[in-house]
Specification:
The chain is an alpha+beta fold. It contains two helices and five strands.
Length: 82
């Protein structure tokens, strides 16, 4: 399961970012990404096939390997860089 190391540690800021970008608010839950179950604040990022799971304790964002294609990965990086 691919992960990105970020500085996303504040769930309130994550919710505010989702609101700013017009995304649904994140929800805390478990999520299957491929063959691995992850837990965190689940966000549906525009341009990705699958939701991502943001672990605000570690700052890691887990995403499905199908979204590792260049154009979809660019959407994920843009979300992280906000």
């Amino acid at each position: 399961m691919p992960r990105i190391l970020t500085t996303v540690h504040d769930p309130v800021a994550l919710a505010a970012l989702c609101n700013l970008l017009g995304l649904p608010p994140p929800g805390e839950r478990a999520l299957w990404l491929g063959t691995e179950e992850v837990f965190g604040s689940v966000v549906r990022v525009n341009g990705l096939r699958h939701p991502v799971a943001c672990d605000t304790l570690t700052g890691l964002i887990a995403y499905h390997w199908h979204d590792n294609a260049f154009d979809r990965y660019a959407h994920l990086r843009a979300f992280v860089e906000q």
